[in-house]
Amino acid sequence: MRCILLRHGIAVEWHDWNGEDRTRPLTEEGIEKTTKVAKGLHQLDVRPAHILCSPFLRTQQTAKIAKDILGISEDAQLSPELLSEASPEHFVKFLGSFSRDATLLCVGHEPHLGSTAGVMVCGQPTPGMSMKKAGACSIYFEGRPRAGAGVLEWWLPPAHLRQLGRG
């Protein structure tokens, strides 16, 4: 299994938003930069069979941008396992419900994604593994996903993904 973790794009700041946090949208800049990031993922030949995202609007928007650019026919599956307060260990177990040869694009939040990457690769959350907005990484599992069994294939900040998307 290959799991691509993607943090949502730049969203309206919480102190500038009058609604619930779950309804905070991407900014125009966030949409533009996330589109370029998705083009970079396309250049890396990222071809997920499934897209999972947290139920928050900004992750759904990020997932939709990726879906359109990567040419994925399936709509994103809303996954509470990708919420900030969710257990990274539980998320890794949840991945076991998918085919062993699947490639998944998982759109979520920090600090959850960084902690999840730590659990996947090191067996526990690891300090320093945090993703910038619209940053991504690829973690490969031989067989079923389990804590500490993942192999980090790449970890790219959004600026590098955007640069790839220009090519």
Question: Please, could you describe this protein's structure?
Answer:
The chain has 167 residues and is of the alpha/beta class. It has a single domain (2-166), classed as Rossmann fold (3-Layer(aba) Sandwich), CATH 3.40.50. The chain has five helices and six strands; from the N terminus they run βαβαβαβαββα. The protein has helices spanning 28-43, 57-70, 88-95, 112-122, 158-166; strands at residues 2-7, 50-53, 77-78, 103-108, 136-140, 151-156. It has a six-stranded mixed sheet, with helices on both faces. The model has no long low-confidence stretch (mean pLDDT 96).
Topology:
Blueprint lengths: L1 E6 L20 H16 L6 E4 L3 H14 L6 E2 L9 H8 L7 E6 L3 H11 L13 E5 L10 E6 L1 H9 L1
Parallel strand pairs: 1-4, 2-3, 2-4
Antiparallel strand pairs: 1-5, 5-6
Organism: Candidatus Nitronereus thalassa
Protein name: Histidine phosphatase family protein
InterPro entries: His_Pase_superF_clade-1 (IPR013078), His_PPase_superfam (IPR029033)
